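Section 5.1 Outputs to date
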Amino acid sequence: MLGYLDFLFLSYSGRIGRLPYWLGYFVLGVLQLVVIFGLLKLSNGTLADLVALDRDLETLPPQMLQDLMMHVGLPIIIISVLFLYPTYAITTKRWHDRGKSGWWSLIVLLPVIGGLWAFIELALLGGDEGDNDYGPAAY
């Protein structure tokens, strides 16, 4: 089981079908939320205190905004960056199943159409039948 998880989340080679793609994204999403909410809990309610104090962030004193960024914003950014690697590994293997390079992930940088194109290709369409340049067929 651990070998498959390594393959799914850490490897850029091979192919995966739609089900492992969806499950991988679900697991990563839940795990990321758990870590982020855990960090928010460890911040001793910093975010809740600031929001309760003043709902308009523009009128918060600069020191409070700095505290908010350091105790909440920065950890969330760091966690999001750490989750990029396994997310891209899953996405690359799914592109491989469609017979395309992992570089196709950059299509999401095109406004509107890029994200839609990637969603249709990766989440909805099936993979290549039989072997392709990236390995045997994924199931």
